[in-house]
């Protein structure tokens, strides 16, 4: 006899649904600033004046180089990043944030903090700590399942 299908009892399906809901909320709230969720790893990596290569940014963001190239082209078009020749490799360039992007970092952080507070309002401090610990355990399991 086959086991009854109970998707509501599967934490990973619930987590996937919640992640999509939060992703849409983040996109909606960051949009007025001209920031997309996909750009967040780049913005974080380049904060405080960091200069990194496209390859380094692709590794940090966990995406393929062509995907990062497209993302950086859009960010450059939108005035969020600029490039300069790498002193170590003439075929490569270093990517850095523009002053415009630097000015958006704190407003962007405020949006993310606000969403975090709203979404997690029903959790006390101890529940938040437990939830985070469990999320990191799930992420570790997901990472192991990928390999």
Write the layout of secondary structure elements.
Blueprint: H1 11-30, H2 40-46, E1 52-53, H3 54-61, H4 65-77, E2 81-85, E3 93-97, H5 99-119, H6 125-146
Antiparallel strand pairs: 1-3, 2-3
Please give a structural write-up.
With 147 residues, the chain is mainly α. Helix content is 62%, strand content 8%. Strand 2 and strand 3 form a beta hairpin. It starts with 10 loop residues before the first helix and ends with a helix. It is globular, with a radius of gyration of 19 Å. It has a 3-stranded antiparallel sheet. The protein contains 6 helices and 3 strands; from the N terminus they run H-H-E-H-H-E-E-H-H. The model has no long low-confidence stretch (mean pLDDT 94).
Quick tags:
147 residues; mainly alpha; three-stranded antiparallel β-sheet; 62% helix
User: Whole-Å distance between the termini?
Assistant: 32 Å
Question: How would you characterize the largest beta sheet?
Answer: 3 strands, antiparallel
Q: Which consecutive residue ranges, at least 5 long each, have pLDDT under 50?
A: none
The helix-strand sequence is: HHEHHEEHH
C-alpha-based Rg, rounded? 19 Å
Let me know the average pLDDT.
Answer: 94
- Secondary-structure-based class equals mainly alpha
**What is the count of DSSP helices, taking H or I runs of 4+ residues?**
6
E-strand count: 3
């Amino acid at each position: 006899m086959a086991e009854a299908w109970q998707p509501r009892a599967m934490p990973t399906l619930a987590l996937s649904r919640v992640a999509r809901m939060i992703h849409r909320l983040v996109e909606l709230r960051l949009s007025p600033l001209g920031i997309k969720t996909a750009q967040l790893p780049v913005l974080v990596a380049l904060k405080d004046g960091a200069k990194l290569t496209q390859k380094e940014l692709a590794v940090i963001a966990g995406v393929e180089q062509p995907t990062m190239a497209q993302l950086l082209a859009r960010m450059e078009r939108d005035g969020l990043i600029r490039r300069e020749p790498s002193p170590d490799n003439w075929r490569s360039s270093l990517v850095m944030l523009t002053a415009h992007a630097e000015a958006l970092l704190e407003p962007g952080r405020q949006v993310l903090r606000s969403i975090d507070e709203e979404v997690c309002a029903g959790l006390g401090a101890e529940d938040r700590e437990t939830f985070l610990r469990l999320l990191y355990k799930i992420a570790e399991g997901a990472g192991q399942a990928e390999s």
